[in-house]
Amino acid sequence: MSMGKKSRLAVSTGLSVEASRSTARPPNIATAALAAVVGEVHPLVPAVAGGNDMPFIEAAYRVGLTPIHTRSESGAAFAANGIAWESGRPTLCLVITSVGVYGALQALYAASVNRRPVVLLSGEVGATGWGAVQAGDGWDGPSVVEVTRPLTAWSFHAAAPDLVVRALRRAVALARDRRMPVHLNVPLAVQKAAAS
Predict the structure, then answer these.
(1) What is the DSSP letter of 4?
(2) DSSP per residue, 103-163
(3) Which class for 113: exposed (0-12), middle (13-18), buried (19 or more C-beta within 10 A)?
(4) DSSP secondary-structure letter at 23?
(5) What is the rounded CA–CA span in Å between residue 132 and residue 180?
(6) Which of 51, 137, 163, 178 is 20 to 30 Å from 3 at the Cα level?
(7) b/e per residue, 75-105, with b = 16+ CB within 10 A?
(8) Residues 29, 192: contact at Cβ < 8 Å?
(9) Architecture of domain 27-192
């Protein structure tokens, strides 16, 4: 018996199917962004669940994608690399920023040299001032956007809710058209923001 979308959402959130129906929330930015690209990406989404990427993981279930939970960011990124290679379709990979992105670098490099359309989405803890706290943009080590830039067709920090949907559409289009990985870093508060 196949598990329906509502049942998968209920399992992912720990709510009963009935409770998940009665607690329907308006879409957040993470849901709006994934809904905008759901038909353009592979339905399997390798992911490592962490607090900072949970809105994206929950949104993936909500829009009908199927997260595959791996033990490490490296494993998630290599799985996305393999799915993109076999299917030829852009493949999302969900990780946290900083150590999560750094753990995915070897697979991102492999996707780059082998020209595979991996879309690495990293969840950032928060933004303060000009930079992101964990991403290292002026706070805690090197910037993940700067570190991933040489390996990708595009690497971007979407620091405001109005940037995320357009940025993810652009990331998927670049991955598909250039046959290269891309990276999008999104703060947790931005992922959770109400979609307009």
Answers:
(1) P
(2) HHHHHHHHHHHTT--EEEEEEES-EETTEETTTTSSSSSS-HHHHHGGGSSEEEE--SHHH
(3) exposed
(4) T
(5) 25
(6) 51
(7) bbbbbbbbbbbeeebbbbbbbbbbebbbbbb
(8) yes
(9) 3-Layer(aba) Sandwich (3.40)
Helix (H) or strand (E) run with residue 45 in it: strand 44-47
Structure tokens at 50: 């962490």
Strand ordering across the sheet containing 182-187: 66-69, 44-47, 91-96, 118-124, 182-187, 154-157
What is the chain's Cα-based Rg? 16
Assigned token pair, 170:
């652009």
Q: What is the pLDDT of residues 67-89, one digit of tens each?
A: 999 999 999 999 999 999 999 99
18: Cβ contacts below 8 Å, ≥ 6 apart: none
pTM to 2 decimal places: 0.83
103, two tokens:
């753990």
Q: Tokens for 63, please give them.
A: 């829009």
Is pLDDT above 60 for 91? yes
pLDDT digits over 12-68, tens only? 444 444 444 445 565 899 999 999 999 999 999 999 998 899 999 999 999 999 999
Confidence of residue 109 (pLDDT cuts 50, 70, 90): very high
